[in-house]
Amino acid sequence: MEQTLNKTVLGLFAHPDDAEFLCAGTLALLRQAGWAVHIATLSPGDKGTVEHTRDQISRIRKHEATQAAAVIDAQYHCLECEDIYILYDRHTINKAAALVRQVRPALVFTCSPEDYMVDHEMASRIAQTACFVCGIKNMEVDEPHFEPVPYLFYCDPVEGKDIQGRAIQATTLVDISGVMAIKEQMLCCHESQRNWLRVHHGMDEYVLAMKSFSAQRGALIDRAAAEGFRQHLGHSFPQDNILADILADHVHCNQE
Asked: Is this model's pTM higher than 0.90 or not?
């Protein structure tokens, strides 16, 4: 399988630091397996501050995201949508579709369709459509279309629950015990977010929060740390679990 794939993975999320919280360990493992890694955010996270202007925090957070991506020799992209106002509309779909066509990933990670904020849920829907339309010729984007539709995996929602507090069960768990130091290094690049999260979310030491949830997921498979995913298995999307093939020594699969 790997010989016929374009060994490129794209993480498409709402904000800088989403990928670092949700799938940086798995991205690091894929990089170690020889995959090219791209991390993209729909917005620069221009509302995530209690001290800077929108322009200031946008520059800061994009710089932080670029530094975090560089830890695993990945490339960072920002689609420059406005934080909090990420919309499922023509303009945004075309931006995301153009990025997918430019990167041509075999594998895409995105936010959970059920999460604590609408920006994450919109990013999930946008990523789904951007993957689905990668082979549709008559899209209003300049990048050439391609086939097949990429594999699409949804990351765990923040804290592993939906807005009603119900647990979301991952069907694919990736053991990231051996790359937790890399995941932490990537997350620590987002220095601007510590003060913001402490004031707005009442969450101090957000690196410890990441470690705690990683440990919770790891306990499900008797490992020190893990990241959880659910595969998009709708019509026209690939049905086999590519993560189980590429990262066989790290992947544990459950069925809901």
From this structure: yes
